[in-house]
Design brief:
It is a single chain. By secondary structure, this protein is mainly β. It has 2 domains: 98 residues, Jelly Rolls, CATH 2.60.120; 78 residues, Jelly Rolls (Sandwich). The chain is 0% helix and 59% strand. Strands 1-2-9-4-7 form a 5-stranded antiparallel beta sheet, with no helix packed on it. The chain has a 4-stranded antiparallel beta sheet with strand order 3-8-5-6, with no helix packed on it. It has a 4-stranded antiparallel beta sheet with strand order 10-17-12-15, with no helix packed on it. The chain is globular and about 45 Å long.
């Protein structure tokens, strides 16, 4: 889909509620990936907190009103900023692919961790109202309570427990893999 400002395109992975329109400003959270092909301003999303990380390319610098310029040149390193005003993006050396989580900050808090997973089972307690897993490379085996699922590269798993509780996850991979774990909690 086109960016709100029309200067690029985004692949939307998930949005809540599922029928929310991006431009309406009426979504709780949204997960997406974008290719940034040129230096340009990002769209403003007033009332939203944005978490962004570069997943491919040399990186970019973000100029955000009221903050020092932030250089994002390490892959899979989350950076959180306000969507209230447009951030100006300067590419370091060619196009990048980025990964984005946006949350309505009046209603949600979010934490994003990127983990390297190997053949040792890694238990993880993820307390929150929504837990989102996204696999960037490899195949990650995920056990949630008694259920197991193989999360392929490029795939996402959204877990919404019936009641607010800690979700017990176990992660492992036959070969090294990279996964983002996003925990969203209602305010």
């Amino acid at each position: 889909m086109a960016w709100k400002n029309g200067l690029g395109t985004t692949d939307e992975i998930a949005i809540d509620p599922p029928d929310a329109a991006l431009g309406s400003g009426a979504f709780d959270w949204r997960l997406s990936m974008a290719t940034v092909g040129q230096s340009c301003p990002f769209s403003a999303f007033p009332g939203y907190e944005r978490t962004i990380m570069v997943i491919d390319g040399a990186g970019m610098e973000l100029d955000i009103p009221g903050q020092a310029t932030r250089r994002l040149d390490r892959l899979f390193e989350p950076f959180v900023f306000s969507g209230d005003e447009p951030a100006q993006c300067r590419l370091i050396a060619g196009p990048v692919r980025d990964f984005n989580l946006m949350i309505a900050r009046a209603h949600w808090r979010a934490r994003t961790d990127v983990l390297r997973v190997g053949d040792v089972r890694k238990p993880l307690d993820a307390g929150g109202d929504v837990v989102i897993l996204h696999c960037f490379g490899g195949v990650v085996d995920v056990a949630v309570d008694e259920a197991e699922e193989a999360l392929q590269s490029g795939h996402t798993l959204v877990i919404e427990p019936a009641a607010s509780r800690s979700i017990r996850l176990v992660l492992w991979a036959r070969q090294a893999a990279t996964i983002a774990v996003m925990t969203l909690t209602r305010r």
